[in-house]
Amino acid sequence: MQNRIQFIQLGDWLLDCEQQRIQKDNNWQDVPSLTFKLLMALVEEPNRVINNDQLIKTVWGDKQVVSDENLQQRIRMLRKLLSNQSAQLEYIGTVRGKGYRLLVMPSKVKISPYIGFKKHIKSIVLLSLLFTFITLTFVYYKQIVKTDNKYKVTLNRIAVMPFIQKGVLRDFEGLDTEVTFQIIESLGALSGVEVASFYEIQEYKGIDYDVMELGNKLDVAFIITGEIEYKHDQFYIYYSLIDSLKNTLIFEENLKIPFEEILELPQLIIETLANRFNNLYQPKKIVKRSKDRAYRLYLKGQQHYLKYNKVDNQVAEELYRKSLAISPAFPLALCGLSNVLSQKVHQYDGDASMAKEALRLANSAISLQSDLAQAYKAKGFALDINEQDEQAIKAYQQALNLDPNNIGALLNKAILNWEAANYISAYILIKKVIKLDPLDFFGYLLKAQILAGANDFDRAEPIFDKLISHHPQSMIIAQGRAQFYFDKGDYGLAIEESKQLLKMTPGYTSAQLLLADSLLFSGLWLEASNHYKELSKLASSWEADYAKLRVNLIKSNRAGESFDAVKLYDKALNENEQKNNINTLLLANYLIDKNGLAIKILNNLIEQDRVNLSWLEHDPHLKHLRKHKQFKRLKEKLVNNKLTNRKKLLNNDGLYF
């Protein structure tokens, strides 16, 4: 009898070419059909570079349209399968720009059919008994064989339950719905499958349900459930197929998908189902909807926006605008564009017109979809930069009513509470943020800033140090630590950090202002004056007015030049709704004939928690104020207020003062 070739030895693995399975340490593993075809395509031409087009043609054939990204996903799956966590060999190599090649030389293993039959005769007997049992058993669906706890069945009536946003997906609101919808649509490529409509399953979103009862209500035999999590530019997906008649798990799978490939998830799931079950896979030519293109652009915009720097903010704006050019009434893209404009005004070089436009866009998103938490979060941000703090807090709360775990709304609401000196309210919100997403640095950054605001510098400093070590290029963290050093009174380090920040983001107004103040407080008044002069050239703003005032005060103190403090004070009152601010305090300090005005303004600022002790003691332009007989009392009031807040924060952490 002629020998036949069925097995191939590949490193630590034995490949069964007929059964499409692989063995290691006497454990057989079934391999999905497409993945095994890909493996054999590489095995048949070892040490030869095979380009993407040839691999796609060999594995999927000529009639199917398959992208390079699909091939990359299969290669990743194959590498993961062969590595098996303990393998020392690297099996598949990538030749950049050319393709892939097998790095391990395969060897064919010949085996006699008779020997193979004798070796497996016990299994054959058992399988025949199992077959007899199955033919006598009636089940709702046709069950063919059970191998290694994996069922080979024919799928018929299926419901795809709404995928759950696990962890933090607050910046990708609606992604779970989009993925669920596309899986339902894609199931039409499997023969014999009837799928519960998207609208039938929507009522079960976010609620607990009994699988068997649900299957009966929807008249389905199978249920697909899933979760999506986002971290480190990757989406982590867990999904499972459940027999709703028996309430048993048929199979489950964990996937890790790069950010840009998330919308390929439905296709991957359908291919997996086709490989595992008896249904024929009849791929349809995918016609990309305009909504799909708009959504992809929106996702790319989110990816850039979340990097929180000036360049990526601009890229995000362009992507959102392209998304809206395709789908003008796309609420999520309207929210995205609103956010980048608000960010421009808040952090970069935006103006009042952008602030108004950001608010208009957010309101448009709400009018299109009133149950979209992201829209209310965007509205809150826009109201915030339009200096409507009370309305902003209400908008953030509306977002949290729709989605209690919306971290963007939690963070921004915490910031407004902190700025209003509601330390504990802000601190509780921030602790919730950190609990929801321990990997998000914003929660830790705001926690450190709140601690520093309460003069708890010892607990704040290690947090800043850790944040910088993990995110050395983050402008927001660098700014936070520079401000921390200034508030602490370490002006030398504040100067270093501000200069470093300006290297990262040249022309950044907040960094220039902090650098100028740090230089002034260090006695380097000439260098400080140069920076203030540059800032005074900015368009009309609080920062420009502040810089002009500092230039006048430096000239008065150092060169003896006089200035009309009364006129400037009256102008400041007329132009600014907020009568008690740093500018008015500095000017009142020079109104000698209005005894007590500066003390009154300082008292109000202390009650609002808008000054810190180091600044009060070291500002060279507050010399007159420090000589006032009431100054010592107000200084003690400030110290006591900070101490009270520090005690509250310690108590909230269970660390009693």
How would the blueprint of this fold be written?
Blueprint: E1 4-10, E2 13-16, E3 21-24, E4 27-30, H1 33-43, H2 52-60, H3 68-83, E5 92-95, E6 99-102, E7 107-111, H4 113-119, H5 121-135, E8 143-147, E9 150-153, E10 157-160, E11 164-165, H6 175-186, E12 194-195, H7 198-202, H8 211-218, E13 222-231, E14 234-243, E15 248-258, H9 265-276, H10 290-305, H11 310-326, H12 331-347, H13 352-368, H14 373-385, H15 389-402, H16 407-419, H17 423-436, H18 441-453, H19 457-470, H20 475-488, H21 491-504, H22 509-521, H23 525-536, H24 542-559, H25 565-575, H26 582-588, H27 597-607, H28 613-618, H29 623-626, H30 631-652
Helix pairs in contact: 1-2, 1-3, 6-9, 10-11, 10-12, 11-12, 12-13, 12-14, 13-14, 14-15, 14-16, 15-16, 16-17, 16-18, 17-18, 17-30, 18-19, 18-20, 19-20, 20-21, 20-22, 21-22, 22-23, 23-24, 25-26, 26-27, 27-30
Quick structural overview:
With 657 residues, this protein is of the alpha+beta class. The chain has 30 helices and 15 strands.
Low-confidence stretches: 112-122, 129-151
The first-level CATH class name of one domain: Alpha Beta
Q: State the end-to-end CA separation.
A: 89 Å
**CATH H level, superfamily name of one domain:** ABC-type transport auxiliary lipoprotein component
Radius of gyration from the alpha-carbon trace, in angstroms: 33 Å
**Approximately how much beta-strand content do the residues carry?**
5-15%
Report the principal-axis shape. elongated
Number of strands: 15
Helix content: 55-70%
Please work out how many helical segments DSSP would assign.
30
Largest sheet: 6 strands, mixed
**Overall SS class:** alpha+beta
Q: Briefly note the CATH topology name of one domain.
A: Rossmann fold
CATH architecture of one domain: 3-Layer(aba) Sandwich
